[in-house]
Each structure stands twice: as structure tokens, then as C-alpha cells.
Amino acid sequence: MSRLGDILSELREDRGLTQLEVSEILHISNSSVSAYETGARVPNIDILVALSALYNVTTDYLLGLSECNTSPSVLNEEFIDGISLGTIIQSLSLLAPKQRIAVSQVINDMRFCAEVSVSANRME
């Protein structure tokens, strides 16, 4: 199986879809979906883009060029008060290395506090 095939198969299974369902969604044959997942065929650009949209990942992720499986559309999502995640990331990229370390530590501390809070709520 090709790297692309592995990725497509994993994404489909993670979303609880069958090959037949994917074929119906994309209006292609079931055998085409199977061939893409086994590496026997490579999808054309239009199908690759459709698969990217279906699974909400980048084409770079599908092609194994990026480990980040987050769709770029997430950058347009509001973070807070009308400020997008993309704007936050742009601001973070301007920080000096020591400032980046400090922000990373704050985020990790906040994540830890959130996890502790969730665990405490489950115990109640």
C-alpha cells in the first residue's frame, strides 16, 4: 500500500465511512476508492482536492508532505472577540524566542489545568 493509500484508508476508517460511502459522496466508483487506498491508482487533482475537503485535511497531508492534518480553514475560525486563529498565529510568529517559550509554557499550564478540571468533574 502507498503512503497516500495508507492515509486515505486511515482517514476513512477514522470517520467511520465505508469505501462505498466515500465513492457515493465523491461520485466515483467503489473500485476507484479501493484502488486509491491500495496504491494501485493515484487520484487526479480534482479527486485529491475532493478527498481533502471530505476529510477536512490539506492535500499536503494526503500526499505525506505534512504531518499537520489540520485544514487551513481552521485559521479563519474566531479565537476570541473577532480575532481569528490565523491572526493569533501571525502574532506569535513575531515573538522573540524567549517570548515563544513563555507563551508555550502558559499554554501547557492552561492545558494541564483544563485536564485536571475535566478529571475532577468526572469524579463527582
Short description:
The chain is mainly alpha-helical.
Please, could you describe this protein's structure?
There is one protein chain. With 124 residues, the protein is mainly alpha-helical. The protein has 2 domains: 3-72, lambda repressor-like DNA-binding domains (434 Repressor (Amino-terminal Domain), Orthogonal Bundle); 74-123. The chain is 65% helix and 4% strand. The protein contains 7 helices and 2 strands; from the N terminus they run αααααββαα. It has a two-stranded antiparallel sheet with strand order 1-2. Helix 1 (3-14) crosses helix 3 (30-38) and helix 2 packs across helix 3. The chain is elongated and about 50 Å long.
The structural domain count equals: 2
The helix count comes to 7
* Structural Rg: 19 Å
Output the strand order for the largest sheet: 1-2
Please write the CATH class name of the largest domain.
Mainly Alpha
Note the overall shape.
Answer: elongated
What layout of secondary structure does this protein have?
Elements: H1 3-14, H2 19-26, H3 30-38, H4 45-55, H5 59-62, E1 78-80, E2 83-84, H6 85-93, H7 97-123
Antiparallel strand pairs: 1-2
Helix pairs in contact: 1-3, 2-3
Entry keywords:
124 residues; mainly alpha; 434 Repressor (Amino-terminal Domain); 2 domains; 7 helices; 2 strands; 65% helix; 4% strand
